[in-house]
Amino acid sequence: LKGSNIASGTVVAARLPALGKVLQVVEGTTTTQTSTTSTSYVASDLSVTITPSATSSKILVTASAPINANDTTSADIGGAWTIYRDSTDLISNGGDTFYSSLAQNYAGLMMLQKLDSPNSTSALVYKVYLKSTQSGTTMKNCHNNSMGVITAVEIGA
């Protein structure tokens, strides 16, 4: 610190570390519906790309989209969704899931959040994946072409 700043109580911003500061925010949106009956994760069109400014940065990823699931042959329906960074599933055990034995149709809002430590300054692609967890269930995100949003926030660490 410069002695001249002591009297005023100010600190030059350049002398402060970037710890905990939001460095950038990037958002991706889509209205394209992804529909699947697969019991393995399938990529949706909901994605965002961010290039961290330092390897020590953390990336907070949040995603939301309307979802729908239905099965005309059984009353058991279920699905799951998660966030991938490139080929790595960031939210183990399905991220978020639902199951119902009471209805053949389910509509709701998918909400996901994950704090990632990618240790990279290369461009990173975060993408929402979804799957059916019950045979015969059709899972859809951005149902009826409603909007899905994914946001990546770089936080200085």
Q: What is the strand content?
A: over 45%
Please bin the fraction of helical residues. Answer: under 10%
Order of helices and strands: EEEEEEEEEEE
Largest sheet: 6 strands, antiparallel
By DSSP, the count of extended strands is 11
Counting helices, strands and paired strands, the structural category is mainly beta
Provide the residue-averaged pLDDT: 85
For the termini, the CA-CA separation is: 21 Å
Task: Extract low-pLDDT stretches.
Answer: none
The Rg value, from CA coordinates, equals 20 Å
Count the DSSP helices: 0
Name the shape in a single word. Answer: elongated
Key features?
six-stranded antiparallel β-sheet; 0% helix; mainly beta; five-stranded antiparallel β-sheet; 157 residues; elongated
Structure description:
By secondary structure, the chain is mostly beta strands. 0% of the residues lie in helices and 53% in strands. Strands 1, 2, 4, 8, 10 and 11 form a six-stranded antiparallel beta sheet that branches. Strands 3, 5, 6, 7 and 9 form a five-stranded antiparallel beta sheet that branches. Strand 5 and strand 6 form a beta hairpin.
Structure described in brief:
0% of the residues lie in helices and 53% in strands.
Topology:
Layout (H helix, E strand, L loop, with lengths): L21 E9 L3 E3 L5 E9 L7 E13 L6 E9 L2 E2 L6 E5 L4 E12 L7 E9 L5 E4 L6 E8 L2
Antiparallel strand pairs: 1-11, 2-10, 3-9, 4-8, 4-10, 4-11, 5-6, 5-7, 5-9
